[in-house]
Amino acid sequence: MRTGAVMDRRMGESSEIGEQMHQFAKELYPICRSITGDGIRKTLAKIGERIPLTISEVPTGTTVFDWQVPKEWNIRDAYIKNLHGERVVDFKRSNLHVVSYSAPVHATFSLSNLRPHLHTLPDHPDWIPYRTSYYREDWGFCLSHNQLLALQDADYDVCIDSSLEAGSLTYGECYLAGQSENEVLISCHACHPSLANDNLSGLTVATTMASVLAGRDRRYSYRFLFIPGTIGAITWLARNADTARQIRHGLVLTCVGDAGGFHYKKSRRGDAEVDRAMEHVLRHSGETAEILEFSPYGYDERQYCSPGFNLPVGCLMRSTWGTFPEYHTSADNLDFIHPGQLARTLGVCLSVCDVLEENRFYVNQNPFCEPQLGKRGLYRSTGGESIDVEIHARLWVLNLSDGEHSLLDIADRSGLPFNTILDAAELLKASGLITEKA
Amino acid sequence: MRTGAVMDRRMGESSEIGEQMHQFAKELYPICRSITGDGIRKTLAKIGERIPLTISEVPTGTTVFDWQVPKEWNIRDAYIKNLHGERVVDFKRSNLHVVSYSAPVHATFSLSNLRPHLHTLPDHPDWIPYRTSYYREDWGFCLSHNQLLALQDADYDVCIDSSLEAGSLTYGECYLAGQSENEVLISCHACHPSLANDNLSGLTVATTMASVLAGRDRRYSYRFLFIPGTIGAITWLARNADTARQIRHGLVLTCVGDAGGFHYKKSRRGDAEVDRAMEHVLRHSGETAEILEFSPYGYDERQYCSPGFNLPVGCLMRSTWGTFPEYHTSADNLDFIHPGQLARTLGVCLSVCDVLEENRFYVNQNPFCEPQLGKRGLYRSTGGESIDVEIHARLWVLNLSDGEHSLLDIADRSGLPFNTILDAAELLKASGLITEKA
Amino acid sequence: MRTGAVMDRRMGESSEIGEQMHQFAKELYPICRSITGDGIRKTLAKIGERIPLTISEVPTGTTVFDWQVPKEWNIRDAYIKNLHGERVVDFKRSNLHVVSYSAPVHATFSLSNLRPHLHTLPDHPDWIPYRTSYYREDWGFCLSHNQLLALQDADYDVCIDSSLEAGSLTYGECYLAGQSENEVLISCHACHPSLANDNLSGLTVATTMASVLAGRDRRYSYRFLFIPGTIGAITWLARNADTARQIRHGLVLTCVGDAGGFHYKKSRRGDAEVDRAMEHVLRHSGETAEILEFSPYGYDERQYCSPGFNLPVGCLMRSTWGTFPEYHTSADNLDFIHPGQLARTLGVCLSVCDVLEENRFYVNQNPFCEPQLGKRGLYRSTGGESIDVEIHARLWVLNLSDGEHSLLDIADRSGLPFNTILDAAELLKASGLITEKA
């Protein structure tokens, strides 16, 4: 399998695949997702049209480690009407207008009594903030600061037509069996409403990645999780502790479509193979990229990297959450993510998979002195001139293939791209000069 | 116990404690100390008025490892008189005028015969140097270069009314028992005459530190040594080899009152807990500070860090010996040390004690995924906004409390101050989420 | 043995030894060397006039690991004559004119048929390139690009009066037995024709080094190899696998006479004692020097550091091969190497031998506190002043002589030159304060 290289090349020619991902994001954008309810069900249904997806429903009240699966939340409509019956805040115009998990309410409020339930962003007066109240029953509206300023001191007809009842938590899983039961985990949260970078970008890249990998031979098995953030990861881990032990490498994908350079946050281990593979791929990608140390705040790597699991799962982002002003606002819309950026993120992810798939240990069968490459047609014929990078790569693979250095080790030590080292290894293997370590 | 934080805050309000230390230094300044004799006895008596002090007298001739306790030296008077009977050099004006440990002499000398016994500093013509001759019997005078230039070529009446006889070496020890027999050692040399930074600064900070710690609960026992340099440390170690094995952390304090930034010289081990605690405290102190690698020249850490003991003892200084021109001259006087600097040194030392006292290993009782902090009131209630540093600290403590990371490890890895991590740990411990490692 | 220091001093006074080396290079320069044949035999004979040399002849066809000893190549004459019978290219003017290992040829060629057999350097139109065709039977001429441009489109009488027949591969070995059978290997390739830096510089430095070391007591045995590149090292290793196991330290010497600063390429191990010794010597040498990581392309360290052997052999160069335009051209002539540079290279090599010879582990016999150096005359007598570097060195040796730190470790940690540490150790040993570790 070498999909990353293929993808990179195809993407160089056109960003068709990027356009497709952006189009898919556009399709998902209007759905009012939350950590439970019909929004996430509809989202998973659309993903399931593209890749094989198993849907799980976990009943409200189920204990998952220290937590319980919450009530299911659904919403039909919500508004604030003025004296004239005009909807001055209307859920139908943006699902961000309602604090996620708002309890139902229908009553008349004076502005001053309503005010504590209104959230705005004074520094960005045209943007609607995104707020939630999952674990404390409450209700509220988010609106632009300019909307708030326009509200007259009067009574308002306030309605949130929601339900918060026993139901279930829903998540989707795409499992692609490989030669080995050892797994690569790709996880992304699917619980945010109309926010594009956070995290329709992750959903569309993961879906496309699964679609590409489904068509390839795979050494590892791959598991893609489309889950509500935090409670979803906790629920999955609680129900799949044995499976979790099969995870050899993992990535959380989030905020991967904006115009920024890459940020990769390492796993808690800090030197996991996926950490080293990602660093290698990003270093040779030609993209700006920054490697961040692990920290216990962020996305679902918080759960995968909790001390009891300590899984080798890192988090790939472009701009990091909380550092861009559009984060968790209505400005994180479809214009904020770009087809080319989605495509290049996909390329990086597939290249990392290539490294993981092909990273092996070899043993030089002629370990005493160099073998004579020339008689095998693997060396230049005229002495006295310099040699090509391909021959350098062969010498590196031969020199370090002592069973102690993986191809990724050799790539890193030589400074050469993994694919160049892999090409050399495949040639040397075909010549019988190296064999895979037993 | 959390004295450093308290001290820092108090010192922010006033430098009263700094003024008290400076006043104490002023009281000790005129005493003519040496490595033995009544000068150090008087000094220890004054320290003993402030903290509980055990005085040891070790007889001249006692073998202490490769050394022997020297004769006791005392001095009553010394001068150089000119033809007119005027004291052109007078011990009563500065005890630096006599080379420490000068043998008695009373005779008439021509200037040329006297000259080899006269020490000056031509580059600082107004300053008197400080010189000693402990281990080779000799005598001499130290004077300003201008004094020397003013001497006429004539005969002089030279007198050193000293005695160098069998007696004893004196040192003082303040022991504060804690819950554990494991000890923290604070050591400072008390053998220099009228020199303020070297080392009345160390004496006054150590005395005040003992006084503060005496009033607190202590996990560790604390031992403060007020000893003559080199021979004092050697004597103490020779007589207390078993006790030395109880020392878990230690600091030599010297030159800690001048206007310079901090210098901390690490123990021979280089990664001892006291080294890491001091580096942490200095990094978060807001003071300029430089960390120096261990070297076998300096103060009594030379003895504590000799290879047979290899104790985890570092050395805290402000300006380092030998690097400031006032070092070992009459210019190292009471104006050279500052109340605020003494107070901030005390604050750093107490903060290091806080870290050592409170640095423990905890074990997360909910290691699989994060525990639900919200239901315990330990998390923000509205999602979508950023979290406070206090919550960050809780997540860090939970994530790294696997029994392998101490609170200091967690503080260093998170970049957060130890006290923030400690606050989080105490809260989590109170909630039953972590327990101390058995 | 402390030859490096002596050499350095002598070289400081005059570069007589450098002139001698340059003179020897001049003597060797005209010989037409290749990887086999009379050229290398003559060269070894001249080396054998200076140092005891054992010559080995290994028959053509002998299997050496994955290789076979090639046919022996000899050449008597070669030329390209124009219509007027003038030699427009003449082997007698430069032995670089013939591609090394050219098969015999004598025929008339049109320029266009001859052209594929002609090698030039268009970017340096006055220089003749150096080319070989060891392992593919071929023939060719190297000439300056201006010579090529002057050739008319006509027929040429082309002659290479060479032989390529069963014979043998020749190499020379100088073995200096020491107290131990453990060996230091010095290896240099002797197969290049009229090229001065690459590698008459290595040959002359190695020869002089052997000559100097022959007159000294030696802890290690020393083995100097003068061999054809690649096939020579492979042949020696194949025939001396047991001896190779005795090699404790090794250096390949090449390109060590040009005007550039030093480059030391570390062994595959990267932290071998020879790597650390060379880094230490270069750091204190006052010469510009760069340390390079190991890579599997270069000179015969490729074979010594193949994974089956993994010998601690580094490579000392001044300018590195391939990075200077004169490399492998007629411009790498006697003017390109300098007596002073050869002499300073010799000094560095001998200093590294000094370190290897004298690097030992000692054990402080007074490990508890410092011993009293003063009573042994090893300390200053008047206290209060700073101490000399010699006393610093004694304190360092005493402090770190716990059986775990070698003198080189102590030198590196203290930042002091090895010789200063060695002097201190010898003095302390003579005083009985340290003894060599059993």
Kindly describe this structure.
Three copies of one chain form a homotrimer. By secondary structure, chain A is an alpha/beta fold. Chain A contains 14 helices and 19 strands. In chain A, the strands form five sheets. The first copy, chain A, has an eight-stranded mixed sheet with strand order 1-10-12-11-13-16-14-15, with helices on both faces. In chain A, helix 6 (196-214) links the parallel strand 11 (183-189) and strand 12 (221-227). The longest helix of chain A has 20 residues, at 339-358. Chain A is elongated and about 90 Å long. The mean pLDDT of chain A is 95. The interface between A and C is medium-sized, with 26 and 35 residues.
In terms of topology, how is this protein built?
Three copies of one chain form a homotrimer.
Chain A: H1 3-13, H2 16-28, H3 38-48, E1 54-59, E2 63-64, E3 67-68, E4 72-81, E5 87-90, E6 105-110, H4 111-114, E7 118-119, E8 141-142, H5 145-150, E9 155-165, E10 168-176, E11 183-189, H6 196-214, E12 221-227, H7 231-239, H8 241-244, E13 247-253, E14 262-265, H9 273-283, E15 289-292, H10 301-304, E16 313-317, H11 339-358, E17 361-364, H12 389-400, E18 402-406, H13 407-414, H14 418-430, E19 434-436
Parallel strand pairs in A: 7-8, 11-12, 11-13, 13-16, 14-15
Antiparallel strand pairs in A: 1-10, 2-3, 4-5, 4-9, 6-9, 10-12, 14-16, 17-18, 17-19
